[in-house]
Amino acid sequence: MASAPPEDGVLANKMVNFLGKQLFDAQAEVQTLKTENESLEAQIVLHVQDKERLSRSLRELEQKHFVVIKEEVSCEALSDDAVRLYFHLSEPSDSAITSLKQELSTRDQPLEEQTERINNMELFCARLEQSLRDEEQKRVDVETALTVKNEQLAKKKRKIREVKAMLAETRLNFEVSESKSQQLAKDVAALIQEKEKIKAAPECFSITTFLKNCPEDCGQPSYEDIRATKIPDDNFKLSPEALALCEKPVYVISSCDKCIWAESGAQCAVIVRPSIMLTVTGEWLRQDPPLCANTVREFFWWDHDGWRYLGTFKCTTVAECKKSDVRSSVSSTRMKKILANAVCDSDAVAPILVKAVEDLYRNDIFSFVCCGLQCVGFNRPLYDLLCHQERPPEKSWSSSSGSNKRISAQDNQTQPVEKYFKGRYHPPPPSKKRKSNESGCNGQSSSAPKNKKKNA
């Protein structure tokens, strides 16, 4: 919206209007004087014509009277004085001619005065027109300056609106962040109180103690025999015959199940998960344990190039443990992998939040959910079926001295056997093509495909 014109603009407009009115009056008066001048010029023309007519008449009379005198009176009879007297008497009087000239001069004098007055008025009108042009130029300059000021004012108003919008958005973001911070502080305070309650509990689960008290012999075959139950497909799938032989529901150890194995072998293991997970939306999500206490499952495990059947395991303990207990049982690399599951999607969450969540676990503010597993049996019919199932022969090629050399699958499988039975060995996760899902306490497989869940 344009602002009101300044005071000099109003004065310029008033001066322009006043000078325009004076110019209009002067032009009207000049027009009147021109009309009077034209009428006087017409009268002068008539007087001049009358004067010429009288002069012609006078000359005609002179000639006529002179001829008459010459005809009627002989020159000898009249003297020159008499002729001159007669001619003088017959002429028009000088007084009449003089009066006529005076009348003509008196009529010429107003015409000259009117002409001079007209010239003066024309000069005055010219000055008024020049003043009017000057005032008009001033008015144009004032309007131009006013337009520039209005444009600058409009730009400033737009900037003010943009700043107000940014300020409102910033205030809204700040309020949202403040509310989230308050909610986060409340959640952290509640978790700290819960952690204090857990610390005050008389009994606490110890991973090291659980793995040391594990029985040594649970009826499992050797690791080389277990490797014969390989299911090579990345997407875990059992045949209908194998499903029919499963006495218990199937559980597949997925990538999110970080297992800590006993040093004595594969008879005992502990699945470790962070108890609290930060979602992408900034909310805290409490994770359920992968298995409920006293549940029994047929366990399958991914080992490098396929799935293996481990045996029948029972979840004997579901508890929370401290970071120090987990840290004493695994390496720093394994600890980082366990902490990576505390954030739903680390790529979509700010790094400072990821570090803050890890610090909460490192400072024992948050705890880990642990499921103690113990081998309670081995399904021999299922094992025999998986060992005798048809599968393509395993091949492995190695380069030596510039030539390709074929080695047996058994030699290629001896490397992970030693690691497996030395303890604290966690198999690498399956490939990215395999989709694994977390399991709850519903007694069904968590990382098997959907069709496998229905069959199980």
UniProtKB/TrEMBL annotation:
Residues 404-416, 438-449 have a biased composition (Polar residues). Residues 394-456 are annotated as: Disordered. Residues 23-64, 111-201 form a coiled coil. Keywords: Coiled coil. This is Uncharacterized protein. It comes from Fistulina hepatica ATCC 64428.
